[in-house]
Specification:
The protein is α+β, with helices and mostly antiparallel strands. Helices cover 40% and strands 24% of the residues.
Amino acid sequence: MNNAQPAFSWGLTAILLVTLPFFFIGGPDWQAMPLYRQVWNGGHIAFFCFSIILVRQFIALDSAQRWLAASLVTLIIGTLIEIIQQQVGREFSYTDLLFNLVGLWLGLSWTQRASRLTWLLRLGAGVLLTPFLWTVAQASQLQIASAYYFPLITSFESRSELLRISGPASLTSQITSKGKYALKIHFDKAKYSTVSIDKPLGSWIGYQQLMLDIYNPEPEPLRLVLRISDAEHDRGSQALTDRFNVAITVTNGWNTIAIKLDDIRQAPLTRELNLAQLTNIAIFSQGLDKPRTVYLDHIRLE
């Protein structure tokens, strides 16, 4: 070991010890920006990549058998981490287990002498890394586009929009009010069937009204509820009286819904909704007698 290696090893050890607690504390919640959530998930890759680089300072891992053993140990450690995370309010994630192995294989393959075997491992790790890099790229595109096109909240023109949409919905080109795509929503007969759009929503201060287009393909009117919340509501009791709720009825064909921002701001019972920190727009049905489909498009401020 040359003179630079001890300092490198101690530095790497310190970094890993400092970052280890973040497996169990901190991190993005459900209302965090999509890019932040995706980059945070990549921490598993980085941690196990640097961990194996540190281990290789002391242990020779230069055979397929030792690579397999290291992979097995990583899988066991990763599983223990996921089990502990369940005790602190997080969910068990098989994706995180895969990311752990990808990090390990990246660290192993790129610190070995080049050979046919190491190039195969590099290629395999690179292929498995591609979906993660793709989702980070999509989240970056979403965040940049949201800022560039604001006060257009969304017109569903990119698949990256799906990163901030939860609920029974998909993009479609069949029926649109503007552009090539709209959001097709499938409401079922559950007590509450909900589709929500999370951050980034931008600051709504200085605008007059929220506009959105909803298409009802059936002759029967459909009663829905539009819900809007801010960061304080999400951190607090999440009471019905602490957010904006309004019933809307959509008739056959396209419906343009216009809502005054003053009504949104003044909706909470004991305070004002913070138009600069809105976190969620949701549309939901209540106890339908049969499944219904609507199309949502061109959500914007005016």
